[in-house]
Amino acid sequence: MTMEQTKPPLTLYLAAPRGFCAGVDRAIKIVELALQKWGAPVYVRHEIVHNKYVVDSLREQGAVFVEELDECPDDRPVIFSAHGVPKSVPATAKQREMVFVDATCPLVSKVHMEAARHHAEGLQLVMIGHAGHPEVLGTMGQLPEGEVILVETVGDVADLTPRDPGRLAFITQTTLSVDDTAQIVAALQARFPGIIGPAREDICYATTNRQAAVKAIAPKIDALLVIGAQNSSNSKRLVEVGRASGCAYSQLVLRADQIDWRAIDGVRHVGVTAGASAPEVLIDEVIDAFRARYDVAVEIVETAQENIEFKVPRVLRETA
Ligand code: SF4
């Protein structure tokens, strides 16, 4: 009997869509094009996208990652990450006459514009999101302090003390759990019937689609692996969606070497997906790791097709 025949059978259910979204794709392209146009080093404020593999490979090409603008010299270009930045950041860069390129995802910029529009109409904003996440800091930083109140849970809604309960609008982080957010929106609408907001929320197509694919896979599997980083909001939400949809063993792994093989010993149906900032090469690596141990059959579970592409900023189009 060959080694191949002794491997136990296992079916991998691959979620589709999974992995890179249009905003992440664009942000990475922006750093690569900036390196091509201006040469190294190019500074990047915050991890361009939340994935160590991506960040390390850009670092090797000459990108320097910093947390704040004051760590960048005046005479080198700086890129702002896909999560968006508070208004004060580009304002300071302008003051310092720096070359800067904003890689904020257009779907995050859309929320910034929504916030500005509501503020111009005299409304106070409620933002549904996770405290401390760079997207939340960036979006809240579009308006003066006190104009955006953050809520993270349904429980927070009861504690809100807005300036005028009749003059409120809400916005959301783009990478939240669709189901949890629906509950918070419902609580806001119950407490403040006049609150204005988007038709449902501001969760982006990529987050919504990846969560829907996990829900479709969950009934078929005994274990779910989400390839993504600990600081990636949309990846963490996929783990939660997996658990909430009935797959108790749902784990976040950065790459194949983090798979806990003992924990999934005996399991024959495994789901695999990836957060919006995880490249396909890491998914291939995970599939290969399974193939080394099991006789693997791969089944794609497709719940949506994505053809969205965002243009890079004008300043880099010629280089592209
Ligand atoms: S997850 Fe959504 S909002 Fe974030 S970069 Fe991707 S498309 Fe844009």
Compact description:
With 320 residues, this protein is α/β, with parallel strands linked by helices. It has twelve helices and twelve strands. The chain folds into three domains: 3-20 and 205-302, 4-hydroxy-3-methylbut-2-enyl diphosphate reductase, catalytic domain (Cobalt-precorrin-4 Transmethylase, domain 1), CATH 3.40.1010.20; 22-105, Rossmann fold; 107-191, 3-Layer(aba) Sandwich (Cobalt-precorrin-4 Transmethylase, domain 1), CATH 3.40.1010.
Please characterize this protein's 3D structure:
With 320 residues, this protein is of the alpha/beta class. The protein has 3 domains: 3-20 and 205-302, 4-hydroxy-3-methylbut-2-enyl diphosphate reductase, catalytic domain (Cobalt-precorrin-4 Transmethylase, domain 1, 3-Layer(aba) Sandwich); 22-105, Rossmann fold; 107-191, Cobalt-precorrin-4 Transmethylase, domain 1. It is 39% helix and 19% strand. The chain is built from 12 helices and 12 strands. The protein has helices at 3-6, 22-38, 52-61, 88-95, 106-120, 134-140, 154-159, 178-191, 205-217, 233-244, 280-293, 314-317, and strands at residues 9-16, 42-45, 63-66, 78-80, 100-102, 124-128, 148-151, 168-172, 223-227, 249-253, 269-274, 295-302. The chain has a 5-stranded parallel β-sheet, with helices on both faces. Helix 10 links the parallel strand 9 (223-227) and strand 10. Helix 5 (106-120) runs parallel beside helix 6 (134-140). The longest helix has 17 residues, at 22-38. The mean pLDDT is 96. Residues 21-24, 82, 105, 107-108, 174-175, 204, 206-207, 234, 276 line the site of iron/sulfur cluster (SF4).
